Sequence to fold (464 residues):
Amino acid sequence: MKRSRPINYAIIILLLMISSCRSASILANPKETLNPELEMGLDSGSAFEHYVFKIREGATPSGGDKSATGCGCN
Amino acid sequence: MAHFIARAQQMANPVDQQINRTTIELVYNHYEQDGDNSAVTGGEGTEKLSVYGPSATINWQKSQHSFSLQIGADIISSASTDNIDSVVSSASIKDARSYGNLSYARQFKESESSFYIGGGFSIESDYFSVAQKAGLLFKSLDLERTYKVELSLYHDDLRWGRLDDDSFLQPQFLIYPEELRTQEWYENFRRTSINLRTAYTQRLGNQNILGIFPELSYQSGLLATPFHRVYFEDGSVGVEQVPDQRLKAALGLRLNSALSDRTIVKHGIEGYTDNFGILGLALSHELSYQLSPDLIVGYSLRFFTQKGARFFRPFEEHELESEFHTSDYDLSTFNTYSGGILLKYSPLFFIGQNTYFDTITLRYRYLERSNRLSAHLISIAFVLQKNRVR
Fold:
């Protein structure tokens, strides 16, 4: 089977990102409670996934580093 | 009716409502990995690994004060670390990491801003880490913007022997591959990490939040893993050698948007660079849809690409005269493709007066690297809450 090129995968995600951005022109109403699902924080499942990314990637994007709280050497 | 009362209590400002809240979260994480580029055997050999990770977190919130305590363990079954020595299925095939974290946060009066401090530890047979952190979170009066700054310190000791029956809690020595124990390869057995994390978030209308996350990290000391082998062009073997200082910089941008009352999308783009020569870029996309008041389903996609460290070489490709050398494929050039699903159930099922079962969250992710490492990640979390209105 022919393996898809990385650039194709990146383009698909970029298109999904652009197409689903909601217009920001609506004025904010600070009194209106924000949907808690919109918050930036990570739930424990996402935090676990980020922990694995930190260990399995030499690059450690925002959120911690490989050496901290465990060697990640397995 | 109880459903809506409990949800309203959950959403309300705890200071205004004077709610004493206790939250208990029970989590089980599972990790299964396979690949053929183990750093223990110099870049060729099994990377088969299973990790079973239960943990529990309890959070007490009373007025402007909150305390959080987390304890957990990772039980590790690793075929690669079994190859540190020649005894197949020796003790090195099983390991465990135990950890605990404690933090305190205080909200400023008449404000949504707060500060927090915390500490923790992590222990496994060849590693002991002590962590400290402190942070400030400011929210603008209109709650449109937040600013966060956090400083964390990690003091690690890489000596082996703390969990050994004969030397319990007494570290002995760095553990090298069996055939390389005739000499000390490193002068240092400690590692120090300092992380400065900042965050800025901005509401864009009621449907979008933009987040910017710059981060700097500095590490010094023994940054190599003592039992990682490297094989040179002439077939001789040594241990991994990397610089004793590492400066990292990362910048993340995230945009969370509500496409409708039921549909949330989250996007992220993150860049990374360090003085090892690694460059990384991650793109992520997550969508969740509320099927009913109780149930949310969703999926996530992530693409990651990395240019490897300048001193990475595969098996038997290192030059003898090189100062630094590693065959750890986590530091190589690769792409990672991953996708996952999300299921979140919020039954708000009362199990006592003021105590209810809040949410069950299930996440599954599959990832595959271009160098043929693959992994399955499963996480399930149960949250219980107890609210007492004063």
